[in-house]
Specification:
The protein is α+β, with helices and mostly antiparallel strands. The chain has ten helices and 23 strands.
């Protein structure tokens, strides 16, 4: 962990490299099979005394039931969502049995397609035959190209594809931290947004340090007791523009990045106690981005970017997943690819909507190298269900990923999808016969 079933089977010597000859066809059974992962968790007396114990998954691929000591504690149905399960009442002192049961993504997608089709078909029913792929990727919130694409094979994997953690705390936990940098005349307003989990209503002091720039204290903040969700908090720090160095795209200047340090403190009887801390080194960049779409003639508009009020030509490329099995991609491999883009004088990459919201390493490296990111949401070349359950699932995905990524100075633009509208307007799948339904 992190990993995936194809890599695990290869590491165990059961299968070979999926890229070799016709292995993607020979190994099709893997994606058609249900799998289970299990582990033991040992808890001592001190562990058990914590007020809150949570099991956190940064990414489960994809449809899974999570069990602890034979009890169901949660489930997942979206590869792109963080899941946090409260296990305080399910975990025990000594050895605990954790099991994650993954349903075949191929089977699940087919079931969802058949259920949806009772109302109306959401096309395409399958990928083109020449892809030699798997059907119904648009009915599961998973890397769409894992069911095959015109550039790669099908590898409908399952697994714990991102970090998994057991988190224990007694009073307060910072569950997420992000920020917006807003041009405010002579200042940059850094709007810090955090989410907190608290065991009980807790009065705290929140210290925000933008290292080398400012240190601000926010007093008398009351965090409501809430372990099933989080208490949002926002605080704004104003930084004179004369104090900062601007972040620029590759070829147009440097990429200075500042550290952010947030601490949560409780005062008790004149004594200060540190409850939690989040430190983000080299993560804050100051820059503005504007997409200029001014009218041209009667029918057109311009389409170019201004960075820090300077028009800049965007030279770049389309980024697809660096491997059909995401767990195979290392930080060094990502750095080599992004550095190659930098050396080719690129300053923007588009993260394609048929893949994944990329790794933290990817965006951190893009920040460092001055490569702006046009970020697609993960929908591609298809129609998608619009029932309430699917929309609720997508809403959770979008909220998580925007909070996760929006602070990166490299993020320039969010785009809804890859080619869904052109598929609809171009009648790729015969949707003209019922256009009012699909629009």
């Amino acid at each position: 962990v992190p990993g995936g079933i194809f890599s695990d089977l290869e590491n165990a010597g059961i299968i070979g490299n999926i890229y070799y000859r016709f292995n993607d066809i020979e190994y099709r059974w893997i994606g058609e099979t249900d799998w289970a992962y299990s582990a033991e968790i040992y808890m001592n007396k001190e562990h058990m005394e914590h007020s809150s114990i949570q099991l956190e998954f940064q990414g489960l691929d994809t449809v899974a039931t999570v069990m602890l000591n034979g009890e169901v504690i949660g489930a997942s149905d979206n590869m792109f969502v963080q899941y946090i399960f409260d296990v305080k009442d399910h975990i025990k002192s000594g050895v605990n049995q954790l099991e994650i049961q993954f349903q075949s993504p191929v089977t699940y997608a087919k079931e969802q397609f058949e259920y949806q089709s009772k109302d109306h078909v959401v096309p395409p029913s399958c990928v083109p035959d020449v892809f030699q792929g798997v059907c119904h990727a648009n009915h599961i919130r998973k890397m769409q190209s894992s069911f095959s694409w015109d550039w790669g094979p099908a590898a409908a994997s399952v697994g714990i594809w991102k970090e998994a953690s057991l988190i224990m705390f007694d009073q307060v936990r910072v569950s997420h931290l992000t920020w917006d940098v807003i041009d405010d005349g002579n200042n940059f307003a850094v709007e810090i947004q955090a989410g907190f989990q608290a065991v009980t209503d807790t009065p705290v002091i929140i210290n925000v340090e933008l290292v080398g720039l400012s240190s601000d204290q926010f007093e008398e903040v009351i965090l409501a007791g809430n372990l099933n969700g989080e208490t949002p908090w926002t605080g704004t720090v104003n930084i004179p523009k004369t104090m900062v160095r601007l972040w620029w795209p590759n070829g147009h200047g440097d990429q200075p990045l500042y550290d952010v340090n947030v601490t949560v403190i409780q005062k008790t009887g004149g004594r200060e106690e540190l409850l939690d801390q989040v430190y983000r080194p080299s993560s804050l960049g100051f820059r503005t981005v504007e997409l200029v779409q001014d009218p041209i003639g009667d029918d057109g508009t311009s389409f170019y970017f201004k960075i820090n009020d300077k028009p800049i030509f965007m030279k770049g490329s389309n980024w697809i997943p660096a491997h059909v099995l995401p767990e195979k991609v290392t930080r060094d491999y990502v750095y080599d690819l992004l550095y190659s883009a930098k050396e080719a004088h690129m300053n923007m990459l588009r993260v394609w909507g048929g893949g994944i919201y990329e790794t933290d390493d990817f965006y951190q490296i893009a920040d460092e190298l001055g490569i702006l990111i046009w970020q697609d949401f993960m929908f591609a070349c298809s129609m998608y269900p619009a029932n309430q359950a699917f929309l609720d699932n997508v809403r959770q995905e979008v909220q998580h990923q925007v909070k996760r990524l929006k602070s990166h100075p490299s993020i320039a633009l969010w785009a809804g999808n890859n080619e869904n509208e052109v598929a609809l307007r171009g009648n790729w799948y015969g949707t003209d016969t019922n256009f009012s339904v699909y629009k």
